[in-house]
Amino acid sequence: ATGAYPKRVKVVEVGPRDGLQNEKNVVPTPVKINLINMLSETGLQVIEATSFVSPKWVPQMADHTEVMQGINKLPGISYPVLTPNLKGFQAAVAAGAKEVSIFGAASELFTQKNINCSIEESLERFEEVMKAAREASIPVRGYVSCVLGCPYEGKISAAKVAEVSKKLYSMGCYEISLGDTIGVGTPGSMREMLTVVMKEVPVGALAVHCHDTYGQALANILVALQMGVSVVDASVAGLGGCPYARGASGNVATEDLVYMLNGLGIHTGVDLQKLMDTGTFICNALNRKTNSKVSQASCRL
Amino acid sequence: QEPQASGLPEYIKIVEVGPRDGLQNEKVVVPTDTKIELINQLSKTGLPAIEVTSFVSSKWVPQMADHEEVMRGIERHPGVQYPVLTPNLQGFYSAIAAGATEVSVFGAASESFSKMNINCSIEESIERFEEVTKSARNMNIPVRGYVSCALGCPYEGNVVPDKVAEVSKRLYSMGCYEISLGDTIGVGTPGSMKKMLEAVMKEIPLSALAVHCHDTYGQALANILTAMQV
């Protein structure tokens, strides 16, 4: 129901990784570093910096080591990086990473197409990462893709999402980010999915990662907040298109999210103006228009 | 409307404002034939209400200069309402002469906006609308009332919920069957939407309320969801 909203929300900025990874144009390493440094000045507490995957798979993240070593790491800010396997994890730690993320999915077909193995096999790989992370005292965040729909399988059962989330949480992930990868979710399906997942994972360990492909992101996030979720992923300027729908948008824009949270009186610690300035910078560098409505509206004033 | 288990209404009436509010604010002016075709296509989608045009002077709103032709030219599907804007009695008479069977009047919750938009105070605009609703009542023509700037004004900034409630109540009392609350510049968020609706609902039954949200800051669907949850 429309009861209380959380008093504080932690905004996890995924622009430099999820955003840039899904942009047509590749930006040079110094631009990536500057983007992250600017984001570090906005009040954001978590900024996903890069991905330690093979450049064969993800060329846009080929400079992961340089980026990790080049950014200013401000105290109090976390700079997690993606590590799909033990090799990536070791490279990440060698490059100075202090937090990592692993990416599961609630869909078998998606897992096959995305990382070339089954869900079960992917979890085995992650176990290796978890073991090494535990030994190194490195926190691990778990992502579950396709929580509200899959580009290949279509409908995804909430029970499956709960099952994969529970496995990642039991393995030791401190937080599970539930991703509406193709943005097909609506407040109804979000509510249904969270109700089932919250039976297996405490709400304090849940985050939502909504795509705005069908314009539903903020409405879906609102419902998640009403159910007690207090961690939301977003991407500055709404960076990152949709690899499954040409021309469609992807991540929800951090500016639009912060605008909504400000209006609700929810504390984020984020300076909206500084965030918009960062968005302007990276859009110029990418030679593209911003996907943030707040940014578009603010230009006219 | 009985709420479902989710607390949301089972049915939502969608009022399509594209042909009027939409086209009026587009840079490119479309030919009359295109407007008629647009409305005819919309009539086939199942929409229960389609705002057709605006009977205002073409001096003020050139995009709606062809109001008469459009009104006469469209197909009228049974079960579909085709309201038109009528800012004053003169516009109302023209609308009726052209075949309109429902009209809308446009108030605002901000004095500055009222002056800049229709060149008079809120009180003066209410007087004009009363002339319209009086004639409309005599002819059994339903009137819908709009309140602009319900969540913020481009000139005044913040708008007090009680002011929105006051203007809404005036329009409702004079005979408007429905009041559409417009977030004209899209600055509203779920918090301000809820506060505004709570104030307005003290004066007007929920079933007589509609929301008209602009997506200027990307907040529209979240604000609409909030309105549905109230």
Instruction: Give the H and E element order of chain A.
Output: EHHEEHEHEHHEHEHEHEHHH
The CATH architecture of chain A comes to Alpha-Beta Barrel
Classify the helix fraction of chain A into a percent range.
40-55%
Main-sheet strand order of chain B equals: 3-4-5-6-7
Using the CA coordinates, give the radius of gyration of chain B: 17 Å
CATH class of chain A: Alpha Beta
Could you tell me how far the N terminus lies from the C terminus of chain B, measured between alpha carbons in angstroms?
12 Å
Family (chain A): Belongs to the HMG-CoA lyase family.
Subcellular location (chain A): Mitochondrion matrix; Peroxisome
GO molecular function (chain A): hydroxymethylglutaryl-CoA lyase activity; metal ion binding
Protein name (chain A): Hydroxymethylglutaryl-CoA lyase, mitochondrial
Structural write-up:
The complex is a heterodimer of chains A (301) and B (230). Chain A is α/β, with parallel strands linked by helices and 301 residues long. Helices cover 43% and strands 12% of the residues of chain A. Chain A is built from 12 helices and 9 strands. In chain A, the strands form 2 sheets. Chain A has a 6-stranded parallel sheet with strand order 3-4-5-6-7-8, sandwiched between helices. In chain A, strands 2-1-9 form a 3-stranded parallel sheet, with helices on one face. Chain A is globular, with a radius of gyration of 18 Å. Chain B is of the alpha/beta class. Chain B folds into 2 domains: 87 residues, no CATH class; 125 residues, TIM Barrel, CATH 3.20.20. Chain B has 9 helices and 7 strands, in the order βααβαβαβααβαβαβα. In chain B, strands 3-4-5-6-7 form a 5-stranded parallel sheet. Chain B has a two-stranded parallel sheet with strand order 1-2. In chain B, α7 links the parallel β5 and β6. The two termini of chain B are 12 Å apart. The mean pLDDT of chain B is 95. The interface between A and B is medium-sized, with 24 and 21 residues.
